[in-house]
């Protein structure tokens, strides 16, 4: 199936390609072009609608059209699209909505014998889906406002705990200090979760770029283990960390990567049986960004020792818990979704969704897979090259480019 994306949004193009790569049993190609190059034969045209876009003369050589429209532009769009059959998804489009539509579009192409009454039912479902998207936007906006209000008292609570731990109000004995330290860690964790939930809620409306600074992943892991250790100790879970050194400097936002590690380790602790084990491995890695296989199941040992071509750093966190059902390996990273049962690893669609959001903002990727020794969650952080851009600014460095395959 030939798909044409009429948009200049590189992130949207990347999302479309990722969704198409994850759809089972279908082969398709996607080309991203500007409005001036929108003509030509294709099976599906995806339009990134703007108020000044003219849709009065759609190319008849394209058999189906999908319009991505901001809610505030719906009225304008309906006026312009009068007399045209229009499939609509609201911007910013969610991965789940795009997956559902593209999956249906690919399936319907192989089932062209469907009768007209079925097409009419489909149109009714599309309109219902549009209304549900509007409700979802309202819900997301409400959640964002509520979480924003939560952050202030959580920040204050964390600050008071830090004040007491500093002992300006009086000395503490060891038991009091331990309890306050636990309270402080929990308050900081809640504060980070609230901030991440807020980012998750507004992330599709507001593009956020991480504050990349040279960091130490070992220090991030140590801090994350400090927060997770009390939960692991309760179940007598052994945690074995092993991070290989990286010859390149790594740039990331420390608090954000700590949040990822805490979320994944917390998930592992929940599903690891009493007396089980969690293994953490980190190593330089060659990341083929254009690979279709999202599981990235390259031979690990070869990649660990082939440091001549590494362009990222990879961390694997494997636990001895039950395997993840194959049909849910991708769903566990979806926002606000979960699957039923005691083996639900999605965390209600919050913890792992936050991980994917943070890693995506850093230009990396996170995924899960089942291994012979247990489920494994992995993520890669790209290695960025930094160099000064003028002799007058040798003291101030700026990012030059990502050092990976397929970098733009």
Describe the secondary-structure layout.
Elements: E1 2-6, H1 10-22, E2 29-33, E3 44-48, E4 65-70, H2 74-80, E5 87-91, H3 95-109, H4 116-165, H5 174-202, E6 213-215, H6 217-234, E7 238-243, E8 250-252, H7 254-271, E9 277-285, H8 300-305, E10 312-319, H9 347-361, E11 365-371, E12 374-382, E13 384-387, E14 398-402
Parallel strand pairs: 1-2, 1-3, 3-4, 4-5, 7-9
Antiparallel strand pairs: 6-8, 9-10, 10-12, 11-12, 13-14
In short:
The protein is α/β, with parallel strands linked by helices.
List key phrases describing it.
408 residues, alpha/beta, Rossmann fold, Heat Shock Protein 90, 3 domains, five-stranded parallel beta sheet, five-stranded mixed beta sheet, 9 helices, globular, disordered C terminus
Describe the overall structure.
The chain contains 9 helices and 14 strands. The chain is α/β, with parallel strands linked by helices and 408 residues long. The strands form 4 sheets. The chain has a 5-stranded parallel sheet. A 5-stranded mixed sheet has the order 7-9-10-12-11. Residues 296-307, 388-400 and 404-408 have low confidence and may be disordered. Helix 1 (10-22) links the parallel strand 1 and strand 2. It has 3 domains: 2-113, 3-Layer(aba) Sandwich (Rossmann fold), CATH 3.40.50.2300; 138-202; 213-402, Heat Shock Protein 90 (2-Layer Sandwich).
